[in-house]
Write a structure and sequence with these properties.
- The protein is an alpha/beta fold.
- About 40% of the residues lie in helices and about 20% in strands.
- It is built from 14 helices and 14 strands.
Length: about 375
């Protein structure tokens, strides 16, 4: 079987990388169409995954006009790849996967979550054979929509697939017992980020200076433009493939981006998300909040004291890990599910084994 997988962002690489490897090991022909965005290509190279780059996307302020100007060339490259490889199945999200599946006349499996906005959902849903999402997702995509117990991040952070390296502190240059905080600042350049705001420059400085009183501070700035001169913080400079090991060892993660907060929660690291003016309701974050594995703040003035409280209270980390142990072990290993779905060519009625634990959206509570 020939399988085509779209990786438009670093998160997509992580979502599919274990499934791609496992499908190749089972004798399937798998290829990835990737977009040159942030560290997407660096991750594909690190994990030695077969890919073709179909286009690029910068990290400057984004607009619908910019998206439209990029789209034509990208679709032309995708067309060439599809006709050259003739996939039997396509994994993706948004217009790219839908377009490729239509060209190839192949089943299209979309793995979606509570991403804000409607464009990706609107243009891709009519072409999907199957739509998979976490049960916590608040949207309903109709009769093709199936849910699983967990998060898309379970494809790479479920206990069955993630094992910490154990040497990340050496790479970071921190002592075994030295507390450190990881601050992640969003570039807010994706299509679904239009209109959103994150930490302001002055808020970033205040947060860094406050956290530095209790821990060593590492800053991961997605835009790569932040100047840390004169601030008590180090730039996070490890290979992007090591970020989950760094999160797992951290005493605190604070971010204005969603994925890393979810990842920290699933790893048992105290995680605070600054929502700022983002009023979109994410089912995944609500689920993590109920499990005591993430906290959200619309007010910067309330976030900073909570960050300091976590860093100064030794028992917080143990409590978070206890809650993680109770919560994560019951979640679906998404890698196994993706492999099952691939080998069923997106036909959900063929997944009769108990381990898949998928159900129609109509049978899943929307929390």
């Amino acid at each position: 079987m020939r399988v085509l997988v779209f990786a438009n962002t670093p998160a997509h690489v992580h979502t599919y990388r274990h499934a791609v490897t496992r499908l190749i090991e089972r004798g399937h022909d798998v290829h990835i169409l990737a977009r040159d965005y942030a560290c997407t290509l660096a991750l594909l190279e690190f994990f030695d995954l077969p890919y073709t780059c179909y286009g690029s996307h910068g990290t400057d302020a984004y607009s619908r006009a910019a998206f439209a100007s990029e789209l034509g060339g990208q679709l032309a490259t995708i067309t060439q790849s599809v006709f050259g490889g003739r996939p039997d199945l396509v994994f993706g999200r948004g217009p790219y996967g839908a377009f490729a599946g239509t060209l190839a006349r192949a089943p299209v499996v979309l793995v979606l979550d509570d991403e804000p906005g409607h464009f990706n959902y609107t243009v891709s849903k009519p072409f999907a054979t199957c739509i998979l999402s976490p049960e916590a997702t608040r949207r309903n995509f109709g009769p093709k929509h199936y849910t699983f117990d967990g998060f898309k991040e379970c494809a790479y952070l479920h206990p069955d697939v993630f094992t910490p390296r154990g040497d990340v502190r050496e790479y970071l240059g921190v002592d075994p017992d030295e507390p450190y905080a990881l601050l992640r600042f969003n570039a807010l350049d994706a299509l679904h980020d239009m209109g959103r705001t994150g930490f302001t420059p002055s808020q970033r400085q205040t947060l860094i200076e406050a956290a530095a009183k209790e821990a060593t501070v590492f800053v991961s700035d997605e835009s790569g433009s932040m100047d840390l001169t004169g601030l008590p913080a180090r730039p996070y400079q490890l290979h992007p493939a090591l970020i989950h090991d760094a999160i797992a060892e951290a005493n605190l993660l604070v971010a204005d981006t969603g994925t890393m907060v979810t990842e920290a929660g699933l790893l048992g690291t105290p995680a605070l998300r600054y929502t700022a003016a983002d009023d979109h309701s994410f089912g995944e974050f609500k689920a993590l909040e109920r499990a005591g594995l993430a906290e959200q703040f619309a007010s910067f003035e309330s976030l900073t004291p909570r960050a300091l409280e976590i860093l100064s209270t030794e028992s917080v980390g143990r409590d978070w890990m206890d809650r993680r142990s109770a919560f994560v072990g019951d979640l679906t290993d998404l890698t196994t599910l993706l492999v099952d779905v691939a080998e069923a060519k997106g036909t959900m009625s063929r997944l009769e084994n108990a381990r898949s634990r998928v159900r129609p959206r109509s049978l899943s509570p929307i929390s």
